[in-house]
Amino acid sequence: MSEILIGLVSGIVSGTGMGGGTILIFLLTFFMGIEQHMAQATNLIFFIPTSIVAILVNIKNKNVDLKLAIIISIFGILGAIIGANISLHTDVNILKKCFGVFLAIVAINEIYSIVKKYRITKNTNNKTKER
Amino acid sequence: MGKKVIIGILAGIISGLFSTGGGMILVPAFIHLLDLEDAKARGTSIFCILSMVVTSSFFYYRGNYINWRIAILCAIGGIIGGYIGAKLLKKLPTKILKIAFTIFLVYVSFKMLTS
Fold first, then answer.
1. Does the distance separating the beta carbons of B92 and A75 come in below 8 Å?
2. Which domain holds residue B41?
3. I need a labelling partner for A21 at 20 to 30 A (CA). Which of A83, B36, B50, B76 fits?
């Protein structure tokens, strides 16, 4: 039952467009004690049905650049073959640390983009006030 | 074309390694390097990630890492949650979502590094 709950929480986060996969892997490993590789495999299966619905909606709303999607997919598949094989041959503890480093980089980039956006809106607000 | 090759391979490697995170590379790359608008960048990225995820699934399946019971239960919750989340998205301000997500990332990153 807790699996459905974890899926529900991750689904809500995915639906808002933030990293639902990260939260799913985190909940599975830290709250259910599932091994990192198995948690990642669960995330893969979790992603397929939810994303198919999202893709169909996006195609209908003309939010998919099909030509670009196909080119990126071809090279993405090559990358995924490399990445998945490295992952499966990597020790769990090292894999977790790599995941931590990756998330830290994404977080720093997010902080940078939030600060930059906030500064721009603040500056334009000041300018309108001066006028 | 060169840019697209690098973006695709890099997102694929990250996606295969961690099974997540492809979107965290693709969405900003599409917006800043290929000048796509926000909605189109997100829509196109999900399409690309699905092809990477299906590829990775094959290797995780072969390595016997898929626990179908857990995966199917999570997916059931995920489909319901995804619907609720999409409805919520229209009501919550993006800025607050972004800040909450970043705090969460810092927390998980710390947990992963210290566990």
1. no
2. 2-114
3. B36
